[in-house]
Design a protein that fits this description.
By secondary structure, the protein is of the alpha/beta class. The chain contains twelve helices and six strands. α1 runs parallel beside α10 and α4 runs parallel beside α6.
Length: 309
């Protein structure tokens, strides 16, 4: 009875959240944190936590489709993760290779036009994972309905450092002029194929930091960020809707702020123009006869510019 009541309440709240959401982000990026802690709390080893997290990943892809989100980037494996023990890494690499192939072959992926793309230092990964990446990208290359980026062997700081070194090398060699270094030039040197700017970053597991994740695409776009406590295997549709609502609320706040600033700017410009017009009219009046000056508009001839506050 208690479980049924809880399910009913959660379902009702989920429907309420969905009704509150209007505009959705175009590109969501997720830091899937908490798999190992989830496993420990359930008396299991880390690989079991990663496998439980993979189920959540499949659900999130469905939620994105339901909301009309066009691009999702998942932080699957960072460059720092290479420091973990082999007994954890090998099963994780097996899982990554398995899921990449499985999703690339799924009928639903092709029905919904999902295109898989890996970002990161893929060449550092074991052969089986590299081949799975190549297979998934090749198998879904013709799809254009939804973009799924898998950040694997990814490190944002290293990505920017590599791009900066490439630019510096080309400028020093003379193959690139300094004034040709622009946003597009830098983006062309980031990991593999560029992704679009990130609108919303979500991090599960309770930590409130973005962990070197997509600094160029998220910080440059001043992406909204949503931190939540559930471990990744426990992340629910309600949690996801809350994250999207946070993005929408931030966007609405920004829109109001931009509107207020624009209105203030228009008022300032208008007031400045009135002051300037009155100053010109005053100088003109000094050179006109009394009768000619009387023909000036009253709002320009009756007051000094200094009194136009």
């Amino acid at each position: 009875m208690l479980q049924r009541a809880r399910s009913w309440i959660e379902g009702t709240y989920e429907r309420l959240l969905r009704r509150e959401i209007g505009d959705t982000p175009t590109h969501v990026a997720i830091i899937q944190d908490g798999n190992r802690r989830y496993a420990r709390e359930h008396g299991a080893d880390a690989p079991e936590g990663h496998r439980a997290g993979a189920s959540t990943t499949e659900q999130v892809l469905e939620w994105c489709g339901d909301l009309g989100i066009e691009e999702l980037t998942l932080y699957a494996f960072s460059t720092e993760n290479f420091d973990r023990p082999d007994e954890e890494l090998e099963p994780l690499f097996d899982l990554l290779a398995e899921k990449l192939r499985e999703f690339a072959d799924a009928d639903r992926s092709h029905e919904e036009g999902v295109r898989i793309h890996a970002i990161g230092a893929v060449d550092r990964l074991p052969t089986r994972v590299r081949r799975a990446v190549e297979y998934a990208e090749r198998r879904t290359a013709a799809n254009d309905g939804f973009r799924l980026n898998v950040a694997i062997a990814y490190g944002g700081r290293n990505e920017l450092l590599t791009a900066a070194r490439d630019v510096a090398t080309d400028v020093a060699s003379g193959s690139l002029a300094p004034d040709e270094v622009d946003v597009r030039e830098v983006e062309s040197r980031l990991y593999r194929e560029p992704v679009r700017d990130v609108d919303l970053i979500v991090r599960t597991g309770g930590d409130e930091r973005t962990s070197n994740f997509l600094p160029w695409h998220a910080n440059g776009n001043e992406a909204a960020v949503y931190f939540c406590a559930p471990y990744w295997p426990e992340f629910s549709r309600v949690d996801f809707l809350r994250a999207v609502r946070t993005y929408e609320s931030r966007e609405e706040s920004w829109q109001r702020a931009r509107t207020d600033r624009a209105a203030a700017l228009v008022r300032a410009v208008a007031e400045g123009e009135v002051v300037e017009a009155r100053a010109v009219a005053r100088r003109l009046r000094d050179h006109l006869s009394r009768g000619e000056a009387a023909d000036l508009p009253a709002e320009l001839s009756s007051r000094d510019p200094e009194s136009a506050e």
